[in-house]
UniProtKB/TrEMBL annotation:
The keyword Heme does not apply. Residues 462-498 are annotated as: Disordered. It comes from Corchorus capsularis (Jute). This is Beta-amylase. InterPro entries: GH, Glyco_hydro_14, Glyco_hydro_14_CS, Glyco_hydro_14B_pln. Belongs to the glycosyl hydrolase 14 family. GO terms for molecular function: beta-amylase activity. It catalyses: Hydrolysis of (1->4)-alpha-D-glucosidic linkages in polysaccharides so as to remove successive maltose units from the non-reducing ends of the chains.
Length: 498
């Protein structure tokens, strides 16, 4: 049956992709007050009118646990969730354990809690560190995940306690089906990555970035791993260049570079495995914190599309994604997520190769296809975001294509589970922009009006269960084998200008 001939509402509903909209970064002030509640309510009702399913909001660690260890203050976020409920919308809540400020599009500054920064005054190695010794205070290094140096708690204890407290405080709103998604922040910008390209340290696009494993904790972990591997003489890379270098300027990423040697492969495997382990352990805590709740857990993976067309994929490698033409760096992440039944949320869905600077060797389209394919191969659900605010038909059509790569199908596969639009703003609500956005939302919903009952489009939420048994490292690494991608249509069959 041709796609255009699908008219059965039940069949169409199987192609329904949930649409959320990110709320502004500063809706809760650094003084922990819900800002301009009436103005926000107007925006929420307007989004409801557009047919969106819900909204996403950061829940900042630096605001909630500001006053001291385990001194949580949730009142502003509770007011926000109640307002979202009042407006008839659902909520995605991000457990934002990172600093706000210093990343693309950040216009607000919310540091991590002062009592944590104070510990960093005496022990600056709690922060990610580059080879020159520059510290990054956006997020705690994964090297302290198991170090009980935060008033007797480890970093993982901190994240776990925070999520448990959130659940206790918001239990009625979770039970009522208002909060249906918990995205667990795992690094800078809330993404599972090393902060390899910080603008605060002078990085500019399309610099390759720098490895961030030179704090004393990660240095010690590497030395131990090298010793176990029978190479106690191996050290962390000292030839991988600086933030704004091009790959060929460095020995590490250049032609026949260190990344191709036994030593280079060992380091890159260790660096990327440490990141996956970090995500795995915190997600296990998240499943315990939200056990039996009817919601989805999710994590965000960064869309590092620059240098994707080069042999070395340098920018991905410094961020912790060990991805080459001969090695899939994303499917092991998806395989890890499968044990927690967690969703992989990927960004840059609006980007097209033809819009990119050729000098950056950028290729967002095949990158998106690779990551989504890998997740579907591992039988996990996929979410998406746009990387930059866009209000034009080309961006919307590209998102629609990535959300349903083969258009409307009889069984709604392959397709994205949900999409979150970046972000609510005065620009979005301008008349022409908003009219096109409404068309986009309806097309994401397969041409149907908003459906309130998730059972009708196959998104019934089951109570969260315990994580499955840990996946051995060698089984995770089997997923590095590149696989043929599913075919992608050339364009969407649901164009907003069609």
């Amino acid at each position: 049956m041709p796609k255009s001939a699908i008219t059965d509402p039940k069949k169409l509903a199987e192609n329904y992709v949930l649409v959320f909209v990110m709320l502004p970064l500063n809706i809760v002030s650094s003084e922990n007050v819900l800002v301009d509640k009436e103005g926000l309510k107007k925006q929420l009702l307007k989004l409801k009118e557009a047919g969106v399913d819900g909204v996403m909001s950061d829940v900042w660690w630096g605001i909630v646990e500001l006053k001291g260890p385990k001194q949580y203050e949730w009142s502003a976020y509770r007011s926000l969730a109640e307002l979202i409920q009042e407006c008839g919308l659902k909520m995605q809540a991000i457990m934002s354990f990172h600093q706000c400020g210093g990343n693309v599009g950040d216009e607000v500054y919310i540091p991590i809690p002062k009592w944590v920064l104070d510990i960093g005054e005496n022990d600056p190695d709690i922060f990610y560190t580059n080879r020159a010794g520059n510290r990054n205070k956006e997020y705690l290094t994964l090297g302290v995940d198991h170090q009980p140096i935060f008033h007797g708690r480890t970093a993982i204890h901190i994240y776990s306690d925070y999520m448990k407290s959130f659940r206790e405080t918001m239990k009625d709103l979770i039970d009522a089906g208002v909060i249906i998604d918990i995205e667990v922040g795992l690094g800078a910008a809330g993404e599972l990555r090393y902060p390899s390209y910080p603008q605060t340290q002078g990085w500019e696009y399309p610099g390759i970035g720098e490895f961030q494993c030179y704090d004393k904790y990660l240095k010690a972990a590497f030395k131990e791993a090298a010793k176990k591997a029978g190479h106690p003489e191996w050290e962390l890379p000292d030839n991988a260049g600086e933030y704004n270098d091009t790959p060929e300027k460095t020995e590490f990423f250049g032609p026949n570079g260190t990344y191709l040697t036994e030593k280079g492969k060992f380091f890159l495997t260790w660096y990327s495995n440490m990141l996956i382990k970090h995500g795995d352990e915190i997600l296990e805590e998240a499943t315990k914190a939200f056990l039996a709740c009817k919601l989805k857990l999710a994590i965000k993976v960064s869309g590092i599309h620059w240098w994707y067309k080069s042999e070395n994929h340098a920018a991905e490698l410094t961020a912790g994604y060990y991805n080459l033409k001969t090695r899939d760096g994303y499917r092991p992440i998806a395989r890890m997520l499968s044990r927690h039944d967690a969703l992989l949320n990927f960004t840059c869905l609006e980007m097209r190769d033809c819009e990119q600077d050729a000098a950056a060797y950028s290729a967002p389209e095949p990158l998106v296809q690779q990551v989504l394919n890998g997740a579907w191969r591992e039988h996990i659900k996929v979410g998406g975001e746009n990387a930059l605010s866009r209000y034009d038909k080309d961006a919307y059509n590209q998102i629609l294509l990535n959300a349903r790569p083969n258009g409307l199908t009889e069984n709604g596969e392959p397709e994205m589970y949900q999409f979150t639009y970046l972000r609510a703003s005065s620009d979005l609500f301008q008349d022409d922009n908003f009219e096109l956005f409404k068309k986009f939302v309806k097309n994401m919903h397969a041409g149907l009006e908003y459906i309130s009952d998730p059972d009708k489009y196959g998104h019934k939420l089951s109570p969260l269960e315990h994580s499955k048994p840990k996946i051995p490292n060698e089984v995770l690494l089997e997923a590095t084998e590149p696989l043929e991608p599913f075919p992608w249509d050339d364009e969407t069959d649901m164009k907003v200008d069609g």
